[in-house]
Amino acid sequence: MRLPYIPKDPSFPDAEDQAIVSRVKQRRGSRGLIELDRALLHAPPIADGWNSFLGAIRTKTSLSTSIRETAICRVAVLNKAWYEWDSHAPILLSGHGVTENDVSAVLKTPPRASEVKVVDEKHSAVMSYADAMTLDVSVPDELFARLKKSFSEKEIVEITATIAAYNCVSRLLVALDVGEKNAQNGPTIQ
């Protein structure tokens, strides 16, 4: 990491900052603070907003684990955010109907591939959508029409917010080298 991590059990003199630590710990449960939290807590109000927003993305959408994690893992691959990949690839593999071949496809399919073969058409559309949002920002109408065939308006907003949020996550992870993964040429899970 390019900055020192905050201690695993920080004690801030400001009561509100300490309350933020408690909220982050509560969301993390028995895992306690992870390296990402220990980086963000250099700026407690940012850590607080992050905790709330990413907590909603991870636990309060209607998306299946496999759809959510396909989006997150694809963003990680595109941005070479291997800390993110190492954290989320096992969660993707735990998703209903997801095989090791599907996880490998998320990892190895070239960006902007015309044909994506992962789980099914819904997952393939999400992967292509993540490619467009991450690499081009602008999404072609044909690709958006593909999403509309498989997902409700609510789900499309949730997928879009997930991809956008994890682009933010990956950029912070890579810029600060959280988890000391920037030197990797690829994921540790294959």
Automatic annotation (TrEMBL):
Name the domain of life this protein comes from.
Eukaryota
Name this protein carries in UniProt: 4-carboxymuconolactone decarboxylase-like protein
The Carboxymuconolactone decarboxylase-like domain covers 44-107
Identify the Pfam families for this entry. Answer: CMD (PF02627)
Q: Which organism is it from?
A: Lentithecium fluviatile CBS 122367
Classification via SUPFAM superfamilies: AhpD-like
Please list the GO terms describing molecular function: peroxiredoxin activity
